[in-house]
Amino acid sequence: MKTYDAVVVGARCGGSVVAGKLAREGWNVLLVDKARFPSDTVSTHAMFANTLARFDALGILERLYDRHQIPRLFPRWRILEHELSGSYTAVGGYTYGISVRRIALDSVLVDWAIDGGVKTSFGERVQGLIGSGADGDPLRGVILEGGEEIHAPWVIGADGRASTVASLLNLEKTKPMTGEMAYLFAYWRGLPQEEVSSIDVNYSQQALMHNPGEDGIDLLSVGGPPEITRGSTADREKAYAARLHAFPESFDAGHLDKAERISDLIVVPETMMRGFFRRATGPGWVLVGDAGHFKHPGTAQGISDAVEQAIYVADAMAGDDPELEGFHEWRQERSSGHYEWSFIYGSWPVLGMAEPFLSGLAADSEARQDWLDTFTRIKGPSDVTTPERLGKWLSG
Q1: How crowded is residue 364: how many other Cβ atoms within 10 Å of its Cβ?
Q2: 0.85 exceeded by the pTM?
Q3: Each residue's pLDDT tens digit, 336-353
Q4: Are residues 313 and 233 in the same domain?
Q5: Bridge-partner residues for 231, per DSSP?
Q6: Same domain, yes or no: 150 and 36
Q7: For residue 332, is pLDDT > 90?
C-alpha cells in the first residue's frame, strides 16, 4: 500500500497544474493518468492573455517557448459579414493569445509537475475509490486497474468531462445545456504564417476556425450542422473540404494545394457539446476543470478554467481553506454568465436579431473591447450586452 497527501487523477491542464503547485508546497502527490505522455486529446487549443500570464508566473510559459516556436495570435471574427478584431486588454503584459496542440502543451505541463516533485503512474486506469466520498465516509484514495491501492486524504478528479472519479462518486449532472454545432478538424503544415486567430461564420450554417499553432502547424476546424459528422469517411471529408472553401474573403483555400495535411480528420459530434455542472467538492475529494463543469467550447475557455481552478484549489488546500469550503461558491461566481454565453456563442446566429447586434457591436469600439475581454475574464457577458447597448442596437 502506498500513501500520499493527494492523488490527482488526470494529468492534463488542471491535473498537472494542481499537482505541481501542491508538490512545490511540500505535498507528497501522485499524478495518475490512463494515457502515457506525449498524448493528444480533443481540444480548442486556445489560450488567452490571462492564461499566458498564469503560465508565465508558474514558469510554464518559458518551458513552452524553449521547446517550440509559438506565434502570437490576435483575434479576428467575421460573423455574418461583420468583423470584430483587435487585441486583449493587457493581463500581466500579454495582449494576445496562443494555440498549441495538446500533445505539446500537456507534455510540458507533465514535465513541469514532475520537476516539482510529483510522482506519476501513467498508462493505468482508476477502477475504484476507497471510501464513498459522503459524509462520515470520506474518500481515502483510489484503486488502480491492476488492483493496487493508493491511499490519500484527498482525491482530485481532473479527468475531463467523462470523469471516472465523478462517475464512481455517482455525481449528478445539473443545469444541462446542449449545443447545435458539430465540428471537423485536422492539422496542416506549410500554410502562410500570420499572427491572427480567425473565426468565420456565414449565413449557410458554415463556420471556419483557423489557429496557427506551434512549430508551423496550423489547426483548421470547420463547424456545421450535426450531419457533417455523420455518414461515411468520404462524406465527412467532403463536408470538411466544402467549408474550407466557403470563406474566400478571409481564407485562401488555394494555399492548401501547397500545404500538407499531417493528421486524420478528427470528428467532434454535437453530442460532445453537452454542458453541465457537477458538485465541486465533498469529503476527501474535489473536481477540477471539465470534470466538474463543462461549457461549450465555442468560447475556448476549457484550458483557462482548468488552470484557474487548479491554482485556486492548490492555493486553498495549502493555505487558509484546507477543506475547500469556498471552492464551490467561487466556481459558481466565476462561471456566472459565461456558461450560458458559451452556448449562445456556440449556436447559429438567429437571423433578424444577429445582424443588428453584430452591426452595433462592430461599430462601438468600447463594446468591441468588452467583447474581446470576456475571453480573458476581465469582463463578463453582461458588460457587453448592457440594456443601453441592446436597446440602441436592436431598435436601430
Answers
A1: 16
A2: yes
A3: 999 999 999 888 988 888
A4: no
A5: none
A6: yes
A7: yes
Q: What is the CATH number for 206? A: 3.30.9.40
Q: Measure Cα distances from 118 to 109, 113, 115, 129, 291 in Å.
A: 11, 6, 7, 21, 21
Angle between helices 60-67 and 49-58 (to 10 degrees): 100
On whether both 303 and 198 belong to a single domain, the answer is no
Q: Which set of grid coordinates corresponds to residue 353?
A: 436579431
- How big is the CA angle at 80 (ends 82 and 304), to the nearest 5 degrees? 80
- CA-based nearest residue to 306, from 32, 62, 105: 105
What is the rounded distance in angstroms from the CA atom of residue 394 to the CA atom of residue 396?
A: 6
Domain-terminating residue out of 270, 301, 330: 270
Do residues 210 and 256 both lie within one domain?
Answer: yes
The enclosing domain of 152 has a CATH number of: 3.50.50.60
d(CA 365, CA 128): 53
Please report the sign of the dihedral spanned by the C-alpha atoms of residue 236, residue 237, residue 243, residue 246.
Answer: negative
| 1: pLDDT strictly greater than 80 | no
* Cβ 383 vs Cβ 335: under 8 Å: no
